[in-house]
Design goal:
Structural class: alpha+beta
Radius of gyration: 24 Å
Shape: globular
Number of helices: 7
Strand content: 25-35%
Strand order of the largest sheet: 3-2-1-4-5-6
Helix content: 25-40%
Order of helices and strands: HEEEHHEEEHHHEEEH
Number of strands: 9
Largest sheet: 6 strands, antiparallel
Distance between the termini: 37 Å
Length: 325
């Protein structure tokens, strides 16, 4: 894995080379992920996996024509070919009046905010195994649990670097730790399964492995012997675990490409009341240690906290530069 300085330099060098090769403008993004995962089942080690991968993507503009291409090989010869192919593709692409980099006057010029996304502590595989065993054992200890699909623990680090030909260069890293367990309750046709997991940027913020396991076991047992209710009008209660799915459908209707193409189910809902007035949905990419926090967006623009839904009302769209134009 490249250091942050090396990753940023690699992206900047690629952009500079693309400009020299004939591109009117360009941007490049480098991403790398490395992780270690340990899985156990029925108290025995089942799998240990170490993965590491990196990719660099280049987008070039020739007038109003553009093309994007990526590679996972950082060899200089491969990157030179990447540049040649992207420029050749751009010259053959149809013109797009909205194509281009983000407005230069909106780029993040100040120092990127520190979001405390990196944990210097990196657990050894033996520690991951111990955490996985504790989680699964706790899940299996719940009365009514009859089998296990396993428990696991993981630790990883990711790095992102972005450079543009009109003046932005930045990079950041983030770590992640996670624990999970999945078990079965009951037997035969009445068997039920459920799981629990938790993830955090810093190890000390991670839920205790025993607590994660117990949640998995209790959830599986709670599914046994379901009762029947009469038909009727009644409140619907969603499990917190599907919160991201519900919000995901909302976001899918707010993103720029869907709005620009007029394919969003929310197209005519701007400023309309979509939820109860007690509902506010906040997007906060500056949340300290947040699992989705980041200091800048994919175009080099600063990010900010904003209400997507405020007092039940849809406040705006989530645009990239091309969609906004």
């Amino acid at each position: 894995m490249l250091s942050l300085e090396e990753a940023q330099s690699r992206a900047q060098d690629l952009v500079t080379a693309a400009r020299k090769a004939g591109a009117d403008a360009a941007d490049a993004i480098y991403a790398c992920n490395a992780s270690t995962t340990v899985a156990v089942r029925l108290g025995a080690l089942e799998d240990v996996e170490r993965s590491e991968g990196e990719e660099i993507g280049l987008r070039v503009f020739i007038g109003q024509r553009s093309a994007s291409i990526s590679a996972s090989d950082m060899n200089p010869a491969t990157l030179a070919t990447l540049i040649d192919r992207s420029i050749a593709m751009a010259r053959e692409a149809p013109e797009d009046p909205y194509a281009g980099l983000a407005p230069e006057d909106r780029l993040l010029r100040k120092r990127a905010p520190s979001l405390d996304l990196v944990d210097e502590e990196e657990p050894e595989p033996a520690a991951l195994r111990e955490r996985a065993l504790i989680a699964e054992e706790a899940a299996r200890s719940i009365p009514g649990i009859t089998n296990s699909e396993g428990g696991g623990a993981a630790s990883g680090r990711s790095q992102v670097a972005l450079a543009t030909s009109h003046g932005f260069a930045g990079a950041y890293a983030a770590t992640n730790h996670s624990t999970w367990a999945s078990v079965l309750a009951g037997s035969g046709a009445d068997m039920q399964r459920d799981h629990a997991s938790h993830a955090s940027r810093h190890l000390k913020d991670l839920d205790d492995a025993e607590a994660v396991g117990m949640r998995a076991g209790q959830r599986a047992v709670a599914r046994l012997n379901p009762g029947k209710v009469d038909s009727g009008v009644m409140p619907v209660i969603f499990d917190p675990r599907i919160g991201s799915s519900l919000v995901g459908h909302l976001i899918g209707g707010m993103v720029g490409p869907a709005i620009a193409r007029r394919s969003s189910f929310l197209l005519d809902s701007l400023g309309e009341t979509l939820f109860d007035s007690k509902i506010t949905v906040i997007d906060d990419p500056l949340l300290l240690r947040g699992l989705r926090s980041r200091p800048f967006d994919g175009e080099g623009l600063p990010v900010e906290r904003r209400a997507l839904i405020e007092d039940g009302v849809l406040t705006g769209w989530l645009m990239d530069s091309a969609s906004a134009r």
